[in-house]
Amino acid sequence: MSTIMEMAADIIAAHASTTPMTKEELLAELNELYSALSALEKGEATELPAEKDEDTPAVSRKKAFGKDKIYCMICGKGFTTLSRHLKTAHEMTANEYRKQFDIPRSQSLAAKNYSESRRQMAVDRGLADNLAKARAARKKK
Known about the structure:
Distance between the termini: 74 Å
Strand order of the largest sheet: 1-2
Number of strands: 2
Shape: elongated
Strand content: under 5%
């Protein structure tokens, strides 16, 4: 049977393969998991980390809306767009998220550089012109 450290390392490696983590985060998580597994092996009770209050953001609003990433104010993780993360990880809609943290409707839930690159791509492809032509054709009918 594997040692506790090997099991902890395997679990952290699996987690790190799907979630970007810094060295400090990897080491902290490895130490925490090793302690929990050791306690379980000895039959001791393990303490669960205290849950955060959902009303207090993990990240300030100023930091949450960056140029290259947008950070989830619930868990603090960074993404280019937030909608999918909110649905899968927190089971909430963008509107519920906006209401919870008092974010105006005009604020995009995507990183600024990502939004700008998508806008530029649409301009380069002439999508606005095609939309105008389609609307004009529909009016004629």
